[in-house]
Write a structure and sequence with these properties.
Elements lengths: L9 H14 L12 H8 L3 H13 L3 E4 L3 E4 L14 H7 L4 E12 L1 H8 L6 E11 L2 E11 L16 H7 L4 E11 L3 H6 L8 E10 L4 E10 L12
Antiparallel strand pairs: 1-2, 3-4, 4-5, 5-8, 6-7, 7-8
Helix pairs in contact: 1-3, 2-3
Length: about 240
């Protein structure tokens, strides 16, 4: 393998080569690596050697395997200030449920008067809109609409949000969430959204609306979460 010595097994040399390319930015966080076949051909080694190297980096938490989609580079983990601000994926894992997410739609649009006031930006500035369906053990439990100002996460349109959580994107951009203001209401969905949640249109759902702030006092996200009442519950902690 070009540029490598013969003092260490090839898979360990390949591991360090991939690691260095990640650290140097050739393989950026939240993007896919070249396939095992492409890497094997590029460096004149076997696919199994590449796989062994990648397996180690997966165990180290530097890469993530996604069945049917490939291997993705993770960003460095950051500690969160408040456990209460966990995202959907971590919440489900904590409950020992298997989470999955389907992105229904995503778009970039001008903020307009309402969201410009919310995010402290100009009406013509861009915001991202993401609509996604959240599953636990392959069963739909909630439908989310997320609004994020573009200036905070300018490359989010190139990130696969069915693989990476929005919280992982925030970590990548060094955004530290500090607090959120949340309201709860009961609403009914339109026919298409009700079908996605596999409920009847007249069935009420819980609507959580949350405005989330970072440690600099900026509004980072506005989120509407329509949750099935028969599949979800919530708790409130009061402090004196």
């Amino acid at each position: 393998m070009a540029g490598m010595s013969y003092q260490a097994p090839l898979y360990l040399q390949m591991r360090e080569l991939v690691r260095s390319k990640i650290e140097e930015g050739e393989y950026p966080p939240l993007t896919a690596l070249p396939s095992e076949c492409e890497l094997a051909e590029s460096y004149g080694i076997t696919r199994q050697t590449v796989r062994n190297a990648i397996d180690i980096l997966v165990q180290e938490g530097l890469l993530r395997r996604v069945p049917g989609k490939g291997v993705y580079v993770l960003c460095r983990k950051m500690e969160r200030d408040l456990d209460e601000l966990q995202g959907f994926t971590q919440t489900m894992l904590d409950k020992r449920l298997k989470p999955s997410i389907k992105v229904v739609s995503r778009a970039m649009r001008p903020a307009g008067e309402n969201y410009s006031l919310m995010f402290g930006i100009q009406p013509e500035d861009d915001i991202y809109y993401i609509k996604r369906l959240c599953y636990a053990n392959s069963e739909p439990i909630s439908l989310e609409e997320i609004y994020i100002p573009r200036y905070l996460v300018p490359k989010i349109e190139g990130i696969d949000l069915s693989i990476f959580s929005v919280y992982e994107v925030y970590d990548f951009y060094n955004i530290r969430l500090e607090r959120a203001r949340q309201t709860l209401d009961l609403v009914q969905l339109d026919l298409s959204d009700a079908r996605m949640l596999e409920i009847e249109p007249e069935t009420p759902v819980m609507l959580f609306e949350a405005t989330t702030y970072d440690d600099q006092g900026r509004v980072v996200e506005f989120n509407r979460n329509y949750a099935r009442g028969d599949k979800c519950n919530f708790s409130v902690h009061f402090k004196k």
